[in-house]
């Protein structure tokens, strides 16, 4: 673990106690993969660390002294420091925060409070050696996720560990110890006690598990081609083998959540689609498996939309006996899900817009002017929408979707057709100079934008001004 600042920090500690890197960064060091956050620990109380680092280049920021946690920084270096401790939780709650904390000088006690053995390893920074008190190195060698102590105790203490179990298995390509897995199933209800913010953080990490530890998303041929990289456009393009552990890590994580019952709690609208049959003329899978396959082949930026794109099919089927209202109904359901999970408003708007728009002009019969206007209104999400439609088509029959919308969008970009009011050759100042009533200016520019999208001749300043003069004189 070659980090000069980490070693310098350990030198400052050594008069008082050895300093250890701990947790995931040690696990990743053993695996030889890039790690993100650096966690460090020792027996020294966090309240005394500031004095130890006085007159050094390191800065201490308080985070949670009750938990013995501070942040140590130095010119780009950042580590979270925690004093060795034992934790006590309220029995039966499964909440994330300990009820009481006791600091200790015993590293073994600190190790036993952690979640999984592969995460309970300590690296003596100055001695350059790993300290393993719970069999974590062997688990890493065997690629196993195993609770550091009795799984009942581990999951009763903190329900979030059930989601973390699925994430680590997905990110690392590890199997899950049988007892750990079965007890996680029994205790899955504990995630109901967690804040939705913490649930969303774990879900977001699972959804991009294939890109963890510096791995890059590998696109399927179909997705690449539809996104515009110049492939030949032939049909029947096969995607990644679902048995590709890392290429499909995100799907594996989702399937674990499904199998243990977590999805029934977090996304019941999704699991309700299990067994919802679809026309064999267009689909290889039921509505649920189709959604998972779209999620599997989608790019990381659209995975929530891919998973939820058909979320309205059951409601539409129940309401009218058919599924053709699923896009609009699905957008409303997606809105409810995003609100429940407390998504940021920008993410919510994009996901819902993608769900609502993904079926538009699939038959290719929409008039060109109307299609151009549809594209212009959604210009900001068009790259994502095209990728979603590609993922949807692949998940339906493993074929390339129609490319008309993509072709029209690219032509509009090449011609510089305005994709917003700001792209017009005129602006509000011109309307002021024409003595346009203030209440009519926004409407006039909107109508000019719409007509310019459909009539390229108006994408000229003189013609746009003439158009506006005619409008005001009516």
List descriptors.
single chain; about 475 residues; alpha+beta; Beta Polymerase, domain 2; Hypothetical protein af1432; 7-stranded mixed beta sheet; two-stranded antiparallel ribbon; 24 helices
Number of helices: 24
Output the CATH topology of the largest domain: Hypothetical protein af1432
CATH class categorisation of the largest domain: Mainly Alpha
The Rg value, from CA coordinates, equals 28 Å
Strand order, main sheet: write it out.
3-4-5-2-1-8-9
Q: Work out the count of structural domains.
A: 3
Global structural class: alpha+beta
Helicity range: 40-55%
Could you give the distance between the termini? 76 Å
Beta strand %? 5-15%
CATH architecture of the largest domain, by name, is: Orthogonal Bundle
Average pLDDT figure? 90
How would you describe what is shown here?
By secondary structure, the protein is an alpha+beta fold. Helix content is 49%, strand content 10%. It has helices spanning 4-13, 24-31, 46-52, 107-112, 136-142, 151-157, 160-172, 178-186, 196-207, 221-226, 249-260, 262-266, 268-271, 287-297, 303-308, 313-320, 326-340, 345-357, 368-377, 382-397, 404-415, 428-433, 438-454, 461-473, and strands spanning 20-22, 38-42, 59-64, 69-74, 77-83, 85-88, 100-103, 121-124, 129-132, 144-145, 175-176. Strands 3-4-5-2-1-8-9 form a seven-stranded mixed beta sheet. A hairpin with a 4-residue loop joins strand 3 and strand 4 (69-74). The longest helix has 17 residues, at 438-454. It is globular and about 85 Å long.
């Amino acid at each position: 673990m070659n980090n000069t600042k980490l070693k310098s920090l350990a030198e400052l500690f050594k008069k008082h106690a050895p300093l250890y890197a701990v947790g995931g960064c040690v696990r990743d060091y053993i695996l030889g993969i890039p790690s993100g956050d650096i966690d460090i620990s020792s027996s020294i109380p966090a309240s005394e660390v500031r004095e130890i680092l006085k007159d050094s280049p390191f800065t201490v920021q308080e985070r949670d002294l009750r938990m013995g946690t501070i942040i140590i920084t130095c010119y780009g270096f950042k580590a979270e420091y925690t004093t060795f401790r034992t934790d006590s939780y309220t029995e039966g709650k499964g909440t994330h925060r300990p009820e009481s904390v006791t600091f200790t000088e015993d590293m073994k006690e600190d190790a036993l409070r952690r979640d999984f053995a592969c995460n309970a390893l300590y690296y003596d920074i100055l001695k350059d050696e790993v300290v393993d008190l719970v069999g974590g190195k062997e688990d890493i060698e065997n690629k196993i996720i195993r609770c550091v102590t009795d799984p009942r105790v581990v999951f009763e203490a903190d329900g979030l560990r059930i989601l973390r179990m699925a994430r680590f298995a997905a990110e690392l390509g590890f199997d899950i110890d049988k007892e750990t897995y079965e007890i996680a199933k029994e205790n899955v209800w504990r995630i109901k006690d967690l804040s939705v913010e913490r649930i969303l953080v774990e879900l977001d990490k699972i959804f991009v598990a294939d890109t963890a530890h510096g791995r890059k998303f590998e696109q399927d041929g179909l997705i690449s081609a539809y996104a515009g990289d110049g492939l030949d456009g032939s049909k029947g393009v096969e995607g990644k083998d679902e048995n590709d552990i890392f290429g499909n890590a995100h799907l594996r994580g989702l399937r674990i959540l499904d199998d243990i019952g977590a999805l029934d709690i977090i996304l019941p609208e999704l699991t309700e689609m299990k067994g919802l049959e679809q026309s064999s003329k267009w689909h290889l899978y039921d509505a649920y498996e189709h959604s998972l396959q779209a999620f599997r082949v989608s790019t990381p930026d659209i995975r929530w939309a891919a998973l939820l794109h058909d979320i309205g099919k059951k409601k539409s089927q129940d309401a009218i006996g058919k599924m053709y209202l699923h896009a609009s109904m699905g957008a409303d359901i997606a809105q409810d899900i995003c609100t429940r999970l407390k998504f940021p408003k920008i993410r919510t708007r994009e996901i819902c817009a993608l769900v609502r728009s993904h079926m538009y002009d699939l038959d290719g019969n929409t008039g060109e002017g109307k299609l151009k206007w549809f594209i212009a209104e959604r210009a900001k999400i068009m790259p994502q929408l095209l990728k979603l439609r590609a993922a949807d088509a692949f998940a339906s029959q493993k074929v390339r979707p129609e490319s008309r919308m993509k072709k029209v969008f690219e032509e509009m970009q090449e011609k510089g057709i305005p994709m917003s009011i700001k792209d017009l050759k005129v602006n509000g100042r011109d309307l002021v100079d024409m003595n346009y009533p203030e209440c009519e200016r926004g409407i006039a520019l909107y109508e000019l934008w719409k007509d310019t999208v459909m009539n390229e001749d108006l994408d000229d300043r003189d013609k746009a001004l003439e158009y506006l003069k005619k409008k005001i004189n009516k």
